[in-house]
Amino acid sequence: MKLIFGAGLAAAICLGAATALAHSFLVDASPSAKDHVAASPKLVKLRFGGGVEPAYSSISILDSTGKLVVEGAKGQADKPRELTLDAPELAVGNYVVKYRVLSSDGHIVEGKYEFTVDPH
Question: Are 40 and 90 in contact (CB under 8 A)?
Fold first, then answer.
């Protein structure tokens, strides 16, 4: 009986861990975290580990003072794990990309990272 209970408990723990790993965590970004780009990027592209719902997701770019530069998010049906944001011309300086996405599994994932526009 203990062996059956132990096996059931182990299976439940593994299933829970697999479910937690299904959330749409950020796996790739362009520009990426700590990136120094020579010119203002035309867009920010984020790729997640699972599908995201563009209508309920957002990407923001903030300047070094925390002021919002632009916000929005676009997705494509044929790329359910990607979101993009058209970026305006960014001056030389540090920027923060913030994102808040609704995963296809119903969970909200948030995060942020910095990049620098530096022509040198």
Answer: yes
Residue-by-residue pLDDT tens, the chain, 120 positions = 554 544 444 444 444 444 444 578 999 999 999 999 999 999 999 999 999 999 999 999 999 999 999 999 999 989 999 999 999 999 999 999 999 999 999 999 999 999 999 987
- φ, ψ for residue 75, nearest 5 deg: -130, 165
Long-range CB contacts (within 8 A, 24+) of 59-62: 59/83, 59/84, 59/85, 59/97, 59/98, 59/99, 60/85, 60/97, 60/98, 60/99, 61/85, 61/87, 61/90, 61/95, 61/96, 61/97, 62/95, 62/96, 62/98
Q: Taking the complete model, does pTM exceed 0.70, yes or no? A: yes
User: Could you give the CA distance from residue 81 to residue 67 in angstroms, rounded to a whole number?
Assistant: 28
Token code pair at residue 16: 């829970």
